[in-house]
Structures are given as C-alpha cells and as structure tokens.
Write a structure and sequence with these properties.
The complex is a heterodimer. Chain A is mainly α. Chain A is 62% helix and 1% strand. Chain A contains 18 helices and 2 strands. Chain A is globular, with a radius of gyration of 22 Å. Chain B has helices spanning 8-16, 29-34, 39-62, 72-94, 96-107, 113-121, 128-158, 178-209, and strands at 160-161, 164-165. A two-stranded antiparallel ribbon of chain B has the order 1-2. Classes of the chains: A mainly alpha, B mainly alpha.
Chain lengths: 336, 210
C-alpha cells in the first residue's frame, strides 16, 4: 500500500513547471539592456560606467545589507536589484555628482521595494521612484544634460538641453534647425547622439534589447505597443502648432525616455496589470499622461510620472477587466 | 456613565505614548503633512492644538450633564469652533508671519478627528480634572509628533532649524514637499512601532527570566 501511495503525489497547482525562474528572466533583461549601455559608454564616456556601476553596486549592496540586518533570506543573486540599479543608472544624466546614484539606489531598493515586502510586493517601479525622488530633490542637478560629442574627454563637456527640452522651449522649426534637416534629426535620435539620460537616447539599441525580450516571450506586445501607439496618435493630433493633425509623431516616439520606459519599465511584471485587456488600458493611460505632460505640463518629459501614476491604477484596472468565467451568467440575466 | 480609573498622570502619559494621535491612532494626519515643513510652523500648530484640546475637554466636561445626547455633535462643534476662533484671532494679531503660512490649517482644527474623538469618548463621560489631564496628554502627544516630524523635515529639506541655516550644501528638497511629509510620517511611524515591538519583547523576556 505504501508504494501505491507514493505514486499518487497530490500537490497544489501549478502542475506543469517550466525552466524559467525569476533569476533567469531578470538576468536576461539585464542582458537586453547591454546594447543601450554600450551606446551610452560610446557617447558619454567613462562617466556612464561610473554612474551606472555606482547605481548597480549601491542597489545590490543596500538590498544585501537590508536583508542581512533583518535576518531574511538574501536574494541579491536573482538579479532584480542589479536590474533596478541598471535602470536607475540609465535614467540619470551623465554628469551627476556621485552621491546621487547612491541615494537614488537606496530609495529605490529600501523604501520602494524592501519596506513594502520585497520583490513582488512593491506598488511602484523601484527604479522610477528612485529617479522621481532624485528629480524632486535636486531638480537642477538632475536636469543638467551635456552634449554627447565630448566622448571620452570627460569633465569639460558642454551643457545643453535635451531634444524634448529644446522642442518645448523653441518650437519645432527652430528645433529642427539644430540638427540640419529632419532626416538627420531622426537619424541622431535613432542612434542616440543627443543629450539626455545615459541609457535613453539610443532608440535603436533599446529596440535591439526589446527584440530579445520579445523573442524570449518575456514581454508581450500589449503594454509597449499600446503605450507607443497612444503617444504617436496624440502627438500627431495635438502636437502641431498649426492645428490638429499636424504634429510629428516620430520625434515624440524617438526622443526622451519613451523607448526605455515602454519596453523595460512599464512592462515590469510586479507593477503592471496581469490581464491582457488591462495591459492595453494601462499602456494607453501611460501614453496619454506622457503626452499630457510633454505638451501641456511644466516638465519637458513625462514618461516617468506617467508610468508611476498608472502603477497606482494597476490593481484597479485588473479588478475591472476580469474575464467572464466560462459558462457564467450575468447577474441581471439571473434576475429575469 | 463610564468613569476612568486611571490617575491623571497616567492619562497624560496615555495621550503622549500609548494613544499618540499621529503615531498610534493615525488620525489628524492632514496637518502632520501639511504644516510640518518647518519647525516653527510645527511648533505653533502643536501649541494651538494643546490649547484647543485642553479647553474643549474642560468645557465639554463642565456642561456634560446639560447636553442632550441627540444634539451633542453640533454642541461639540460650537465649543471647538469657539476656541479655534479665539486662537485664530490671537495668532493673527500676535504671530503674523506664521499665521500667513499656517492660518488655513489653524482654522481647520475645527474639523480635527482627534479633538472630536476625545470630546466624544472621554470628556463627555468624565469629571473635569481627568478631562483636563486627558486633553493635555493628547495635545502634548500631538505637539511632540509635530515637533519630531518638522524637526527632521526642516533639517533634511532646508538644512535649517527654526529658519536658521545649520548645514550647508544641497539639502534633500523633497523633504519639504508634500511627498516628503508622507516619507517622514511613514518612516517615523514605522520606527515607533519597531521600538514598541522591541520594548514588548524585552518585557516578555524579563518576565520569563523572573
């Protein structure tokens, strides 16, 4: 009888297991950010390595110290703290003082993730809260961008505004004159030879990374494409100065932190809705808030606040798009 | 009528520690975030609440036998509004610069949950002296909370205390923004809970060894 009993193993679902694990997914996402990191080193020089490295180091260290001091299981090897540090580093301007990455990583890991219960329990994207904290705390230091042309030279780089900052201050025609013509503007936005945060400038490198994530099926099209599409549509309709339907959606798609945000941050498993329909609503909401801030708000860029605001709504969206159970009857029909 | 059996000193301590308005009961959080961006504002807010809380408890306790229970809420409201008007006008007259910053919140003391709650659960059921002690304790507890929160927020957010610069450099500007208020209140509340748990553990350990 005992041998018979052994054969019938009763366990709770899920019964079909896969080789995927948190660590594998997280390290793959880190790998997917490698092209963007290489581009940032190419354009911004050793500062990119220092800032990003410091972010990663302090993120991993603060997670380790927090878990050790509370005598919890240490989970730094799963790569999630590494990823938070990397994303935060890519969201910082190249020439910040070195205490900024350290404080940002601490806020991201300890306050946003660990105090809410660790990975899987955080309401907001840790890297974005870290950046929001830094942006509100040191608004001047966090918006001092410099030109990527001073590669590998370091210190005396010329400061300038980001493409979106220029667009907001000077309008479209003057903005295009900075780059010559429209084609060279698109080209430099695509490759990433513009001022901006370390990892956000090069759209093509981010797209390569995103392609890896799509290939591995770690992200689906729902959030990124609804996000990008709503940004493009709103930019096309309301972005132009001459009236409706005269805006340039390509500039808005390629500039700022949109690519980084849409593919790598809005798709964070923990802080986005889990149901597909909800994910589309989430993406559209992100796009709408982004464009609202870009066109009407005080900041030139709104991707960060858009994703954070929609993170708040993620549980609410999930609750309202629960699919109908198979065979279930609506309450109204029952009454009849 | 339920009478309290605690001594007056215990009532005061109760208000400051075990039933602290902000860190324990988590009520009246609006002023704890809105006016604590500088030590001076926090101090004046705390003093006003001590005054209003004590005087309301005293008055409600005095007239407790004449209040018809059906209309007690409007009566509490009138008593509170009277004292708030008093402190509002005297602050407008004698502390003009502070009043310009926190005047709105002084008027909002009328709607404080903590003052209402103490009138309802304590003063209307107890004699005058315990009611005064309870009001004092609650007021001082609120005062301490405001001082602690605003101390950290002004020190970190402006590098100053009572308007006097102490630390130079780039302060954490976010701490004097509303978001920083939530950070400060949340972290301090967590800290006091942690202290509480540690003290309870120590007490339990002592009892077992004895």
């Amino acid at each position: 009888m005992s041998t018979e009993a052994k054969k019938l193993v009763v366990s709770v679902s899920p019964h079909v297991r896969d080789e995927e694990s948190i660590a594998k997914i997280m390290w793959t996402v880190n790998l997917a950010l490698l092209p963007a990191f290489i581009m940032s080193v190419y354009y911004f020089g050793p500062r990119a390595v220092y800032v990003t490295g410091l972010c990663i180091l302090s993120a991993v260290l603060s997670e380790h110290i927090f878990q050790k001091s509370l005598k919890k299981k240490i989970t730094t090897s799963d790569g999630s703290a590494f990823l938070t540090g990397l994303l935060l580093g890519m969201n910082l301007p190249p020439n910040v003082p070195f205490y900024i990455p350290i404080i940002g990583s601490f806020v991201a890991i300890v306050i946003t993730k660990m105090l809410f219960g660790g990975l899987g329990y955080n309401i907001f994207n840790p890297a974005l809260i870290g950046r929001a904290f830094l942006l509100l705390t040191w608004p001047k230091l966090m918006t001092r961008w410099h030109e990527p042309t001073a590669q590998f030279l370091g210190l005396d780089a010329k400061t300038t505004a980001t493409p979106l900052g220029l667009l907001k201050e000077e309008g479209l025609t003057k903005f295009i004159e900075h780059f010559g013509d429209k084609a060279s503007l698109y080209k430099s936005l695509l490759i990433g030879s513009t001022a901006g945060s370390l990892g956000e400038t090069s759209a093509i490198a981010l797209l390569i990374g995103a392609a890896l994530l799509f290939y591995k099926k770690y992200i689906t099209w729902h959030i990124p494409f609804s996000f990008l599409a709503s940004v493009a549509v709103i930019a096309w309709i309301f972005g132009g100065k001459e009236g409706l339907f005269t805006g340039d959606p390509i500039i808005h798609l390629l500039s700022g932190g949109l690519m980084l945000g849409a593919f790598f941050m809005a798709t964070d498993y923990v802080t986005c809705p889990t149901i597909r329909k909800g994910q589309i609503i989430f993406g559209i909401g992100c796009g709408a808030i982004t464009m609202l801030i870009r066109l009407k708000g005080g900041f030139p860029e709104g991707v960060m606040f858009a994703i954070l605001l929609m993170n708040c709504f993620a549980p609410l969206i999930d609750r309202n798009v629960v699919p109908k159970q198979f065979g279930a009857i609506k309450k109204k029909e029952v009454k009849k | 009528m339920a009478h309290t059996h605690k001594s007056n000193w215990e009532l005061i301590k109760n208000g400051i520690f075990s039933e602290n308005t902000i860190f324990r009961m988590a009520i009246s959080l609006c002023p704890s975030i809105a006016v604590t961006n500088s030590l001076k504002n926090g101090f004046f807010m705390g003093v006003s609440v001590i005054f209003v809380q004590t005087m309301v408890n005293l008055t409600v306790s005095l007239i407790r036998n004449f209040i018809n229970p059906k209309i007690r809420i409007p009566i509490f409201m009138l008593v509170i509004a009277g004292y708030v008007s008093l402190i509002d006008m005297s602050m407008a007259a004698f502390a003009r610069p502070v009043y310009k910053q926190i005047g709105l919140y002084i008027q909002l003391i009328v709607a404080f949950a903590s003052i209402f709650a103490r009138a309802e659960v304590f003063a209307v059921k107890n004699k005058i002296v315990p009611s005064i002690a309870d009001g004092l304790g609650m007021g001082i507890g609120f005062f301490f909370a405001m001082i602690i929160i605003s101390f950290f927020r002004e020190l970190l957010g402006k590098g100053a205390l009572w308007g006097v610069p102490i630390v130079s450099g780039n302060p954490l500007l976010i701490m004097i923004l509303p978001a920083g208020g939530f950070f400060a209140v949340g972290l301090l509340m967590g800290f006091f809970n942690w202290v509480d748990i540690k003290m309870a553990e120590r007490k339990a350990a002592q009892e077992t060894t004895m």
